[in-house]
Amino acid sequence: MNSFAGLSVQHWTVIVGVVVGLAVSPGSVSDEQAAPGLRSAVKGGDDRNGGYDAVPNWWKPAPEHDSVWTWGEVSGLAADTPDRIIVAVWGDRNRQNEERPNATNYLVVVNRNGEIIERWQQWNSLLNKPHQVYISPYDPARHVWIVERGGGRNVPMSILKFTNDGKHLVMRLGDGGDPRTRAEARANPKPGPFDYGDPACLAFLPDGSFLLADATGIHASSSTTRRGST
Fold first, then answer.
1. CB under 8 Å to 98, separation ≥6 — which residues?
2. Cβ 62 vs Cβ 116: under 8 Å
3. Can you give the pTM of this predicted structure?
4. Is 183 helix (H, G, I), strand (E, B) or coil?
5. Is 2 domain-assigned?
6. Which label site among 29, 122, 144, 201 has the fewest CB atoms less than 10 Å from its CB?
7. Is residue 220 part of a domain?
């Protein structure tokens, strides 16, 4: 495992620019066209993947869930296979969006029926608000990447890279010196490559490098994109 303090940063550069958001496809199926109580949408917008329908009760509860505690916000997922879908959740929460003490279920893996087949509870201490899950299409080992926004339970903002089975943490990018507010982040005139403001998204390149979009935390009018090597 490479910690932030021991990681070489010679491949990193900081590029300030505007991050283009995802556009909503105008071809989405309307509520009137969808089945009663369901909403359909079109993936991608170029017909490669076709449409999909929301399946009632697909998402199953975890063993600890009851009438008070259930899933927190589901923020990202990556389909390793049709029967192995890795899901990032903001832990167990109640209807008031309060986090359960000693919460768990931040990273779970479900099958095509929405049934839990893996729970990566061994990494709970590194997680609080896992924002996105990625598997690089150029990586034959299919490592699992997590963008962790931090902010609670003393969990810092970081980028986490796990083996595909979740048993080993391969790399962790973050120094723990994260700002507590956006004003604090913007007050830093020369943020370093690991001075996150609010890490959001990753994109991968064929040569093994990647781009990190750091949301709107560091610069008042633009986002920060960082390039690094895996």
1. none
2. yes
3. 0.74
4. helix
5. no
6. 122
7. yes
